[in-house]
């Protein structure tokens, strides 16, 4: 069982990122459940705009797609910007859209059997809407969703505190993150043993 986290911050490495922090916390919970994985900060890679598997001209998406295909679990971690997921997160969804044309010998999308989850951080409202938008997009692309697989932290409105600057993780966030991990891993294991039937 393997997990992949796409961190969709607008901030390049090695600068600190709240989205990266919450993704790391989710991945730590996965590891406690025996699931190894990798965290990728998408903005560090030259992912071209488009809806094809390979947009050519040095496009980094094909290498990142290989990681998606090798994973059982995909986590999207994004900040809130103007009430929406980051443009980087939207680009990931757009690139994943190419999977709608990719099927196995029995007509199933290659993403069938993969489970998705979402992590959101920000200083403004939008966590529920972002989760809903990402869940619908991920499900359209073929990912399966367990119950309660969104974890988030939204700071007080119009204040400047970031998640990465908190002295400790709020228990409500930590508890939600644990639930996300337990439910996601449980479903991924079930689907590994009982794949979807041919379409």
In sequence order, what are the helices and strands, one letter per element? EHEHEEHEHEH
Radius of gyration: 16 Å
Category from helices, strands and their pairing: alpha/beta
Helix content: 25-40%
β-sheet strand percentage: 15-25%
Q: Could you name the CATH class?
A: Alpha Beta
Keywords:
199 residues; alpha/beta; Rossmann fold; 6-stranded mixed sheet; 6 strands; 36% helix; globular
Can you give a write-up of this model?
The protein has one domain: Flavodoxin domain (Rossmann fold, 3-Layer(aba) Sandwich), CATH 3.40.50. It has five helices and six strands, in the order βαβαββαβαβα. It has helices at residues 18-32, 61-70, 87-96, 127-140, 171-193; strands spanning 2-7, 36-41, 73-81, 84-85, 115-122, 144-154. α1 crosses α5 (171-193). Residues 9-148 form the NADPH-dependent FMN reductase-like domain. This is Flavodoxin. It comes from Streptomyces aurantiacus. One of its GO terms (molecular function) is oxidoreductase activity.
């Amino acid at each position: 069982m393997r997990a992949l986290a796409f961190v969709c911050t607008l901030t390049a490495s090695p600068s600190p990122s709240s989205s990266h922090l919450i993704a790391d916390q989710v991945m730590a919970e996965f590891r406690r459940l025996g699931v190894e994985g990798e965290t990728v900060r998408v903005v560090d890679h030259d992912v071209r705009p488009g809806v094809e598997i390979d947009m050519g001209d040095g496009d980094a998406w094909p290498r990142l797609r290989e990681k998606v295909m090798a994973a059982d679990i995909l986590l999207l971690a994004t900040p809130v910007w103007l009430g929406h997921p980051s443009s980087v997160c939207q680009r990931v969804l757009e690139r994943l859209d190419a999977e709608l044309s990719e099927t196995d010998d029995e007509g199933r999308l290659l993403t069938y059997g993969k489970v998705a989850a979402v992590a959101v951080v920000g200083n403004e409202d939008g966590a529920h809407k972002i989760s809903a938008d990402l869940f619908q997009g991920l499900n359209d692309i073929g990912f399966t969703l367990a119950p309660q697989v969104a974890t988030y932290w939204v700071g007080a409105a119009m204040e400047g505190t970031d998640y990465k600057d908190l002295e400790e993780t709020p228990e409500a966030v930590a508890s939600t993150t644990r639930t996300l991990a337990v439910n996601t891993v449980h479903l991924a294991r079930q689907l590994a043993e009982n794949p979807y039937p041919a379409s």
